[in-house]
Structure formats: C-alpha cells, structure tokens
Amino acid sequence: MSRRASTGKERIRQFVNGTTTVPGWRADLLVIASLGMLVLIMPVVAETLMGFRGVAANVLIWMLFAVAFNLLLGYAGLLSFGHAMFFGGGMYVLAITMRELGPVMIVVGAPLALLSMGLLAYVIARLIAEKGEIYFALLTIAFGELVWYIGNSNPGGLTGGNDGLSSGMLPPFVEAFRGNLQVVVGSVQVDIYWAVALLFVVGVFLLYRIVRSPFGRTLLTIKENEQLARSIGVNTYRYKVHTFVISAIFTAAAGCMLVVVNQSVATSQLTWHTSGEVVIMSILGGINTFAGPMFGVFLWFLAEESLSGLQAIGELRHFWQFGLGLLFVTVILVAPRTGGYGAIKGGIRRIANELLGGK
Description:
Layout: H1 3-17, H2 24-49, H3 55-75, H4 84-101, H5 106-128, H6 133-152, E1 174-177, E2 180-185, E3 188-191, H7 192-212, H8 214-224, H9 226-231, H10 236-262, H11 272-285, H12 292-307, H13 320-334, H14 339-356
Antiparallel strand pairs: 1-2, 2-3
C-alpha cells in the first residue's frame, strides 16, 4: 500500500472516530452545511416516512426547542419540567400582541415575547438555581403550573382560556394559498417552511456557538464537578442563571415560530405534558451530544405520524404512544448515556473501523 493511500485511510479513520482537529471556521461551515442538508431533505423525509409534508416545519421548530432545552439539561446538568411555560408563554405573548394591536405588530410581539420570557426565566432562576437538582426540577414544575393556571383563567379575556386563541395571527407578509402558508416579500413568494428553516438554522447555529465557547465548556465543568468549578473561582450560580435565561429565550423563539405556522395557541402548550415531551425527546436522542435532541424529535414525530396510521395492527394504531414508549425503554436499556443518536453513531464507527482494519 502506498504512503498516500495509508495516510488517506488514517485520515478517514480519524474522521470516523471523531479525533480529527478541524479549525474553528471550518467546523462552523460544516455545521451550517449539515443544518442546510437537514432542512433540504426534511420535507421529503416528512412526506415519505410520515405521510404529510406539512409536518416538516413543526419538526424543525421542535428541534430548536429541544436543542434549547438541552443547553440546560445536557450541558448544565439541570432538569427542567417547566420549559413549556417559555414555549407556550412566548406563543401567547406574540399571539396576544398581534390580536390586540394588529398582525403587523409581529415586529414588536416577537421581540417582546423573547424579552418577557427571558425576564421571567431570570426571576425564576434567581430563586431556584441553587436549590439542588431534585428541588430545581420540582420547582420548575410548580412555576410551570402557575403560568398554566394564569393562561387557563383567561385574565382580561386575553388568553381565551380553554379555547385558546385562533384568529388574528397571520402577519401581513404571510398569505394562505391553496391551503398552504406562503411568505410574500415583493414579487418573491416561498413556502413558509423555508422561512422556518432559515430561522431554525440561525437559532441552532447560535446555540452551537454557545456550547463551543468558553461559556459552554465551563458549563460542562460545572455539570461534571460543581465543587471543582467553584474551587477554581467559577461563579456557578451566575452560570446557571444565565444558562436558564438563554435556554428560555431560544425556547420562546421556537414558540413564536409555531404561532405563525399553526395560526393558533392553546393552554395545552403550557402544561407539564409539553415539558415532559421535550424531556423525553432529548433523552431519546441523547443529551450528551449536540445533535442528539434533534434526532430524538425526529423519532418522536416519526412514531406519532407513522405508527398512529398503521392499519395492519388493528386498534393498536390509535396508541402510537405504546410504540414510542417501547422505543424509549429500548434506547434507555441499550444506550443510557448516548441515546439513540449516539448508539447509531457508535455503530457506524465500529463498522467503519472494521472495514478500515482498525480496532
């Protein structure tokens, strides 16, 4: 074997094993390219595997939600069972602003949603960040249920109570055309999916830069050994508060996108069930990898859209949660640390090493 072929083989092995050193700007381009490929194939995948092309935008929105949530769980080691308050809360702030002041006020409503949810997260984090992991999780449930109660009680007729809100949320640059929403800018008209895809790429890339920054590396130190982090002068309380706020802001951004796509908001999006769903999605895909939660969201929607439509298993087709639960248990038993994404990645790595003659 020639020296060039041997070198090339070694580079491939290093790439497969994740031991290659990629310069920062090249890594950024690789992430953007990967996200670009994801948004390009998602409509086709949604139509082929889930039977409905329109679900693709919802998948991307929930992927952003899951990655934002995992900044808290996967990198800071803090489990929140109340993140729906920021997801649904952002939706309500934007929806109420557009309904009360006019759809054109989306330019005010969206920033207001992010700001208000960030402020809410800051206040909550200041109160609970140092209460310990178990009490932190329980207190997020309590605050989440408090926000749900406020939304469900329909204060001033703003939230619609149990009925939610379902009108007056179509921005002036979005038009309904043959059952599909189109973004219209001048003479350019594109499906709303591509607007969602653009915001998704921007949001996920920003989160990627955060976890790759010194801030993100410090979070991992706190997660692995908080006492050690404190001993070297890290203000762990401040890092936890900031992480909670950042996670809430990106979560609210995902909620704002869902308002425009679905043209409605309901109190169910404020409940602990919604918070639990994003927890399961993240763990299913793997909280110890950046892409894991996105893979978990894909598995969730795949189970929901495909298993619920199966005809060959009789009445069981109405209980897609059974299939998802079985998948979740399997992943936890087989790959408790890496999740589904890590397990598949590890399998590919082992096969590639066998083919390349590595260990």
